[in-house]
Write a structure and sequence with these properties.
CATH superfamily: Winged helix-like DNA-binding domain superfamily/Winged helix DNA-binding domain
Distance between the termini: 32 Å
Low-confidence stretches: none
Strand order of the largest sheet: 1-2
Number of helices: 3
Mean pLDDT: 92
Number of strands: 2
CATH topology: Arc Repressor Mutant, subunit A
Order of helices and strands: EEHHH
CATH class: Mainly Alpha
Strand content: 5-15%
Length: about 80
């Protein structure tokens, strides 16, 4: 799945998923949200971000969770 606002570039943050090529990782923003930091506070702390970037991070995280590979269990 391609989420346009999430980029992967080996030359930026070691290839971690970043927001629009910025040096802000999806994991950083997801971690802040999980810690209870509000969207408004995140946008204040990272003025280059747009509200749609936070939506993209959540969509990316949801997609990655659904794409986990589980070992086959044979009974």
């Amino acid at each position: 799945m391609k989420i346009p606002r999430i980029s992967h570039n080996p030359a930026v943050m070691g290839g971690k998923p970043c927001i629009r090529g910025l040096r802000i990782t999806a994991g950083t923003i997801l971690g802040l949200l999980a810690s209870g930091v509000s969207r408004e506070r995140i946008l204040q702390a990272y003025p280059h971000l747009e509200p749609e970037d936070i939506d993209a991070v959540l969509a990316y995280a949801a997609w990655r969770l659904e794409e986990r590979e589980e070992p086959l269990v044979v009974a």
